[in-house]
Amino acid sequence: MLYKARVISNSEFAQTGKIRVRIFKNTMPELWKDLSFIPDSIKNGITKIKNDYGFKIKSKEDEAYVFSMYGGGNDYGFFALPQPNSLGVVETIETDTGDKKIEYVWLGAVSFPNGRNINVPSCSEKDKNGIERGGSSISSNGFVIKTKNTNYLNYNTVKPDDLDFSKKAFTNLIAVNENGMEFYFRSIANTKDGPAVRGTSKLLLNKSGLSGEFRPYKDNMPDVDTYSKFYIKPDGEIEIQRFKKDQSNCSIKMGSAVNNLTQKEIGVINLAVTGEKTTSELRMQDDSIEAAIDGNTIQLVAKGNNGEKGGIRLTAAEGADISLSGSLVNLGTAGKSVVLVDSALADATGGQGFSGDGVTFFASGTVKG
To answer: Is 242 within a domain?
Structure first.
């Protein structure tokens, strides 16, 4: 026979292997309620409350073993310790003591309606008021694993919100359905004012690839102005972002592009730092490296397969281009070139240098315009 029951305490499980439950058939209806409405019924180990007529009612609470689904045994298997206020079912089991003592085993939660919620884990986040914040509430054709931090429950000073787990932040969430797989971890610290959320890490795997995000929290709510993200897309492109409002922000993108001359795919890495007024960028590919800041650029270019020259090219935001290639320094696309020569040519010219058509030669240590 199955009996409806509510978990009252799990604090002695590590020592006894049992939890305390309030079995409805052994209890007055006034004590069937959600514990967040009657927290005094478990304070200080006292299980007495006043009913509507002013009489004190004492609950009969029983111990129960905990069933482990899908097998399992000594230090292996799948197990989740039932948390106080969990609503589910227990069943009687045969004892091995030879007496007529009744023993129970907690079989787990059941999808009983529980206020405005169904008594199963959802695959979406809730804020501190228990309001859904995006996503599907119940997975229609998948499964959800969700854990919540309840180790801070103090039975001597228990408050209604301590037992309303629909309002508590989850610690871990795994959701698998037709949309892919979602993994969440929320870092929670216990403070003198209760649990405080420090941040949430999220990992998504779906048809768009693999993506991840870390977002810090302020006052137990997500900080919408700060985050770190990454994306790995089906085409192999990787992108990493770091954003913080009113500060410099960074991004890295690794992917590929098509060389316009050879029509072959080449690897490309882009790095960018965006400040309040300036943007610095670095672009690397297999035949060149380019750095730029506000229109000023420097390029390192490899010798091309079609005879194009390699070298160093400089471009100023205002003014003519400057490029270096071999022994030539080219001033502007149509300007003069400067040739750097060794001491032998300097000796031949008497160290004075000379000018040719469109070209100025100079020796080491001597410059002629």
So the answer is: yes
Give tens-digit pLDDT for 15-52: 999 999 999 998 888 888 888 888 878 875 556 666 66
Cα pseudo-dihedral 151, 157, 158, 159, rounded to 10: -120
Q: Does 254 map to a domain? A: no
Residue 26 lies in a domain: yes
Q: Which of 202, 229, 247 is the last residue of a domain?
A: 247
Q: Convert 160-217 into a string of H (helix), E (strand) and C (coil).
A: HHHHCCCCCCEEEEEEEECCEEEEEEEEEEEECCEEEEEEEEEEEEECCEEEEEEEEE
**Domain, as residue range, for 158:** 121-247
Q: State pTM to two decimals.
A: 0.71
Contact 312, 321 (CB under 8 A): no
Whether 6 and 104 share a structural domain:
yes
Q: Give percent of the chain with pLDDT exceeding 70.
A: 74
Mean pLDDT (the chain, rounded):
79
